[in-house]
Amino acid sequence: MSDLQERHHPPLVRTKGIKVTTNNAIDRMNSAAPALPGWVSQSTAVEQARAVAEVQAAVVVAQQCPRNMRRAWDEMRLACSRLSLAERAFYSVPNRGTGPSVHLARELARIWGNLDYGVRELRRDDVRSESEVQAFAWDQETNVRSSRSLIIPHARMKGKNRQPLTDLADIYLNNQNVGARAVRECLFTVLPADFVGEAQDLCRETINKGDGKPLNQRIDDMLAAFAGIGVKTPQIETRLGRKRGHWSASDVADLRVVFQSIKRSETTIDQEFPPPPVTEAEIAATTVHQPASGAAPVTPGADSSLPAAPSPDADAEARAQWSREQEEEWLANQEPPAGDQ
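^ that's the sequence the OP posted. Answer follows.
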């Protein structure tokens, strides 16, 4: 029994006053280390292993099948010559200007190949009304990666005021909208600058050429499209600063970008085509005149049977006489009460 105890619980060994633990003691110390976080289900473990395997496989495939640079450039030129892509290749927002859109960035990433990109929502805090989002783009062939971490408040700007968001769908769409813009910047960081620059030039050239229609017909089609969303020709002329007969192909191209941005809810009609300021003549025409002697106010032009009010520069006696005449005429036109008939 003593031999069995010594094998399982060996005594401590002292060497020159230094306390040395045995192997069994070291094993017990290791077993007392902090445990890993709680229980993990089998499906979670499988997904974790699958995610690691996918990343490793993607890197191996990217190294074994490098991109064909000539094919990528040729395919980019062909894609940018299509009007359907060129019309979505740019955005126009009043407070941020214009530039290449996320739609162009995604198409170029597809053509370039061996790229992984996306948006991850890392955390959502309903108490602080904010979400933490990470956008990334990773070139798996060259191992170049760009990422951005953002704290997005659960709010959106309405005019110059911040409007809080409480609906879950609105919060999700707001996070995805901000995340998409961050992905766009990450992709343009990873993609070659000359590749992106030529794509933008070709898209602008495609928009200027249109779909083979004459310029006048393209202008008519654009005016009809804007009329469908409530924008009139004078508003467009005010924005461009010249009449319709002096519009160029580049003006029509810019209007296409604005129209697509309005359709994608990136901007609004009031922001792109603000209403004209109210003139002094319009203010004077809508002024309500207050009759004398406490009578009810009368708005000139509201009733065609009443004469128009005198001009504001008439003397006080004429205005008082006009008020008395209007009051007498109004009383004469009233029906008597039912009991007096």
